[in-house]
């Protein structure tokens, strides 16, 4: 019953086997191996595009390098005020963008409000030397609240960004879960709605340590390999990254994993929703469930070994915040979560009454 | 017959098995897992010290983060003019040290000349505002020429550094090979001779993608985890790094691997040294052989599939450079190199006469 | 009738004469001249302290270098959400702090709210690697709203900061106006209430281009000269800076200038306050008047050549924002503002009825 | 008899008067004043070009911002191994270029050797991810040895640079002295021979604290104002910079000043050349004289109050270095040096026999 994060599991068996297979023999280093080449080929195929691509071992590196590819030194990145890049990455985006500035934009349900974005942009007028200049809009899909922008919402935001001379980055740490939830193509949720640069997450969804950066305008991504090396993110035994990504993308494996994680979260949310004493402030759309639970349930669950994090109630509108006998928690399901774990969790929660 | 690099092999079977075993089940993320804890314990034990430790996936990250731990923004790092950090890491050390400056010091056989170091230090007087201020001396052991500083030579260099207010970093990408060659303890070649911060390489010697940074003054390394995260170098599924390092250090495995690689290089160097038409400009001490070979041999070997790199003849004193019908090459052996490969290489070389 | 800024005037005649006098003859460069030495002596005397001191030509340099002196690479600077360092300096603080992060804290009347500060600090827990670590609290005195923290309020904020391991910076671009308003000593408004580093503004108050940075813990400021040089902020003909600051501090000249500017603003505020059609949302305390004026007045004044900036109504609580026929403006007085200008302004404003 | 530097004098009387005149009244801030506009107009006129222009207060800022305009983060700047940007600016170029790397190229007489440049460039191949990528060639005219590249030599170097995809920067700290020496047009020594970006020095030649940056491709310089602000180099009372540069360029004043300084240095060099006991290792071409003098002369001169710096003998070929009873010194003349000072110096030197 580990619902702490989708990174508390290891790699999917299919991915692990690929790593093992790729370990044999001598191969060119620094990404020249056939596994890395195959990974790139599959990414192009799946996205129906010819982007500049880099494989890296962490999501923070993916986001920071993706942003650095499109943000000039000291440029401004607009993002949701609770975006992972703003709150959880120890100022890595600032570091990689040569001291860029992250500016938070408010919005309910973890989603950037278009009007709030327009208002914020007016505070950074073009050509006024006192103000750092806007460079990028970063959108998280799924959001930090486990919600999803519709394709129309994405198009609206990228439209505002492009009108204002910004490039658009998507933090797709849970891109697979979002695509699985929509049933759309990867292209439809990225370059077709105006995403210029994508952090294509995979570690949370079944690789051991592998993410991809896709810069859809290949020429714009020309410096990506050098930035990657300068950040210390080019693995000498590149086969490790290549084999993971190639296996992850093989025959829809990545979507199978995501569909499973989403389904587990749905099972959990459905179960909790039946309870009068439990509230789910945000609609579950991917593999994350945010819930306000009675203290009694929390105690019972943790006593039984269930693992999950308390979440910051300030992220909720005042009216929805937990009462004095409640706690706001995040429950994450992964490709490895089993139905029995969900059922046991729900049973324990009910038993706390 | 792949002598191109010691990173063209995968992980040693023992290390790979440990990765596989560690993949099962849920574990705390970001280095809180028992494998990472065990890796740290073994590093402390082997070095007979209590350093601040970080595990990272690349050697460039290890060097750059190690330097950043001890170099203030814009500080000067003195190193051999052909040091890997100066020549081969795409300015990652400059990036991580907040625009530090690398200053090359000459010296034969890939080793910093103590007198040249003293002369160079005089060009960077303390307290003169026009000059960037010296912060660090970085020593590669083994060197880029495959040679070794004696412990006495290390002590001389660290002495000069400390007298001049510098901390001392060791780029130990091939630390294991050096220790295996000397038969000394890890402590004797690091903190006991005045090394303050060590990049403890492992990837070239049998891990898949894992290196350690050791800051021997633990307090001085307090910011290391934050710098690591800020660089995007904290793996969420930390078990991947921890399991590799723990297995690598288990029951002397790391030294077994290094001894093998060294022995293979010895076999190769010994064979080449019997040949009148071949010259070895630098004495072989670890797993690298640098040789000047006749064009005919080169052609024959490559035709037969042998892989190795041409090396820059400018690194040699003028008198030792290759003649018009010779080429300077680097030949690297790894833990996976087999005696038969060496023998076949030597045979082919001889047959070119 | 130029109320656009306190930097639209040149230097005070006394300061200008000092520049002219200092121009004669040869003198040591890079701050070794007697004028710079005298400026440092006077700063020590006036502040009753022995800080590390640097003279620079711009306020942005003063703030950015002051922050860089106390913020490690990537550290967090907490400041009011509308602080000059956050809003008006083109990300110079981020640049100089090696990609530090500025985090805005709300508060009415331009002043950081202590509770909001405590709440914000909780979002950046110590030792949690995902979060950039807090390094500094920056307080503007006077604020961007022309208001003043009382000495007690300053002590409360610096107390919170120090408890949380932060050093405290004061952006004293209008430090002189604040001291003149309070009638306190410079020490009482800086190191005695817990300010660790001060940007001591002078350009807005009568120098041509000269500010001072004071790091009250002299040892902590040891690297200041090198950071200054690295930023390109050491003037070769240092006499230009030294002569300005020495003259500015001579016989209370700096306070005479500030008292005059404050008195002019008072005359203006007093006049406006008599008018029913005008609102002053923030109490005037230094040389800045913020007023909501009817469109008719605005038009009349600008037609007559009065110069001043519209101000962002979003900085006001919703209830206080200008109505559809009003505009929010900022009116700045300087050492050079003449009573007749104020009277003419008031007369024109009244005549718009 | 101050020959220590050309920055030990103040401003020329003509420049000082302009500063005084410009001080009166209110004017737009941040460079919007008529003096700054006129300065820009004159720079365009004198260079027969429409560059992007910035005025700054220091030479270090001029060089660092000029380089930052054309060097992407982490790019390599090639320059003479003893270039001011490499040796005397406290790593400011590295700071402003977001951790760029300066690579020294050898060459006699302070001039980059074209063959050495070609050799060095081969060490930084395009597209090889291990190597930082070349971005810029920086040429000092006049050099740190007081020598001049001929226009042909400049064209050769810029040709090599452009063929290799580098932009070319000229550090023109003594540009005026060089133009005065050649009698050519400013255009002929800059954009017409392939210079892309120029640091146009003025402080050493008669302003108090003002230099210009010219990016000849105006579009390429679009970000210059933002970089300038981000560095803290936009003066609020911009009239101070504008009035200096406008006066400096008025009716050839700048060239009059430079011709005088050059003539004084010629008088000094001519006098020294008559002496058997004195050697001038580098031909005097501008306002700098480098001489090897007997200890007796040095002692006599310093006793009489002459000021000048010892210079690093390692900058000379071994055969030309001072003997055991000699010292290598640098003697600088400025616009303010008087013939009587030269004559007195020569007399004292002769009297030491």
Automatic annotation (TrEMBL), chains A, B, C, D:
<dbReference type="InterPro" id="IPR015422">
    <property type="entry name" value="PyrdxlP-dep_Trfase_small"/>
</dbReference>
<keyword id="KW-0456">Lyase</keyword>
<dbReference type="InterPro" id="IPR015421">
    <property type="entry name" value="PyrdxlP-dep_Trfase_major"/>
</dbReference>
<comment type="subunit">
    <text>Homotetramer.</text>
</comment>
<dbReference type="GO" id="GO:0004793">
    <property type="term" value="F:threonine aldolase activity"/>
</dbReference>
<dbReference type="Pfam" id="PF01212">
    <property type="entry name" value="Beta_elim_lyase"/>
</dbReference>
<feature type="domain" description="Aromatic amino acid beta-eliminating lyase/threonine aldolase">
    <location>
        <begin position="3"/>
        <end position="290"/>
    </location>
</feature>
<protein>
    <recommendedName>
        <fullName>L-threonine aldolase</fullName>
        <ecNumber>4.1.2.48</ecNumber>
    </recommendedName>
</protein>
<dbReference type="InterPro" id="IPR015424">
    <property type="entry name" value="PyrdxlP-dep_Trfase"/>
</dbReference>
<dbReference type="GO" id="GO:0006567">
    <property type="term" value="P:L-threonine catabolic process"/>
</dbReference>
<dbReference type="InterPro" id="IPR001597">
    <property type="entry name" value="ArAA_b-elim_lyase/Thr_aldolase"/>
</dbReference>
<keyword id="KW-0663">Pyridoxal phosphate</keyword>
<comment type="function">
    <text>Catalyzes the cleavage of L-allo-threonine and L-threonine to glycine and acetaldehyde.</text>
</comment>
<comment type="similarity">
    <text>Belongs to the threonine aldolase family.</text>
</comment>
<dbReference type="InterPro" id="IPR026273">
    <property type="entry name" value="Low_specificity_L-TA_bact"/>
</dbReference>
